[in-house]
Amino acid sequence: MAADDPAALIDVPHFCNEAGHVLLGVEEKSEHVLYRLRKGG
Question: How many helices and strands in the chain, by DSSP H and E?
Answer without folding.
Answer: 1, 3
